[in-house]
Design a protein that fits this description.
By secondary structure, the chain is an alpha+beta fold. The chain has helices at about 20-25, 30, 45-50, 100-115, 130-140, 165-185, and strands at about 5, 10, 60-65, 70-80, 85-90, 120-125, 140-150, 155-165. Strand 7 (about 140-150) and strand 8 form a beta hairpin. The radius of gyration is 17 Å and the shape is globular. InterPro entries: Acyl_CoA_acyltransferase (IPR016181), GNAT_dom (IPR000182), N-acetyltransferase (IPR051531).
Length: about 190
C-alpha cells in the first residue's frame, strides 16, 4: 500500500531501506523515544527490521521526502497491554520541526481508516512533549491517562501520556463539514 500526502510519500518498507533507516534512527535522541528500538542501534538492527514479515492490517511505511529520500518510518502495531491498534513513527533529527511527523501520522490514519480500523491509540513519553503536539496535529486527543511505558533503548519504564482517535467519528464529522460547505448557498 502506498500513500501520497502534500509533501511526503509513504510506501512499504523495502529490504534496501536498511542503510537509510540506520542513518536516520541510529541516534540516541531518536531511539530513546521509541518503545521497541534498542540503543545502541546497530546495522544488524536495521537489517532485521526490514526483514520482518508484515501484517497487511498493520502496515509500516518508509516516509520519503522527494529530493531527500527516506526521512523516517510510520505505521501501525499492537499496543502490548491493551491489544489496541496503535500508531508509531519516527523522523530523522535533521527533519524535526517541519511538520513531517504529523503529516506522516495523518497519512497512516487515512490508510488505517481505508483498511477498516475504527479506533487507534498512541502514546508519548512525558519528556518528549513534541510528540504530543504531533499527535494532536494528527487528530488524536488526550485520554487523560498517564501510565508507565517501556522503552528498550532506555532500558526501563518511564511515564507516557495516552491518546486516542475514533476514526469513524472523525470521518463522519469531516463528511458533515464537506456536505455543509458544498450545500451552502453561494453569493451571486
Amino acid at each position: 500500500m502506498f500513500y501520497k500526502s502534500e509533501r511526503l510519500f509513504l510506501r512499504p518498507v523495502f529490504a534496501e531501506d536498511w542503510q537509510a533507516i540506520y542513518r536516520g534512527i541510529a541516534e540516541e535522541q531518536v531511539v530513546r523515544n521509541l518503545a521497541t528500538a534498542p540503543w545502541p542501534y546497530r546495522e544488524e538492527d536495521a537489517q532485521a527490521f526490514v526483514a520482518l514479515k508484515r501484517d497487511p492490517m498493520l502496515p509500516n511505511f518508509s516516509v520519503l521526502l522527494p529530493g531527500s529520500g527516506l526521512i523516517g518510518q510510520a505505521g501501525l502495531g499492537i499496543e502490548p497491554v491493551s491489544g489496541d491498534v496503535q500508531i508509531g513513527y519516527w523522523i530523522a533529527r535533521p527533519f524535526w520541526g517541519r511538520g513531517f511527523a504529523a503529516e506522516a501520522a495523518r497519512g497512516v490514519i487515512e490508510v488505517a481508516r481505508s483498511i477498516g480500523h475504527r479506533h487507534l491509540v498512541a502514546s508519548h513519553f512525558l519528556d518528549n512533549p513534541a510528540s504530543g503536539r504531533v499527535l494532536e496535529k494528527a487528530g488524536f486527543t488526550k485520554t487523560g491517562t498517564i501510565r508507565p511505558g517501556f522503552s528498550l533503548a532506555r532500558g526501563r519504564e518511564d511515564p507516557v501520556a495516552d491518546y486516542a482517535i475514533d476514526l469513524a467519528a472523525a470521518h463522519a464529522s469531516e463528511e458533515d463539514v464537506r456536505l455543509t460547505l458544498e450545500d451552502y448557498p453561494r453569493a451571486a
